[in-house]
Amino acid sequence: MKDFVITADSNCDLPEQYIKENHIGIIPHYYVLEDITYGDEVNLSPKEFYDIMRAGQMPTTIASNPEVIRTTFQKYIDRGLDILHISFSSALSGGYSNVVTGAQEICEENPGSKIVVFDTLNVSLGEGMFIMKAVRMREEGRSIDEVVKWLEEHKQEFCVRFTVNDLFHLHRGGRISKTTAIVGSMLNIKPVLYVNPEGQLVALKSIRGRKNALSALCDEMMDSIGKYRDTDDPVCILHGDADEDAKYLENRIRELLPEKKLIINYVSPSIGAHSGPGAIGLIFMGEER
Question: For the whole model, what pTM was predicted?
Answer without folding.
Answer: 0.93
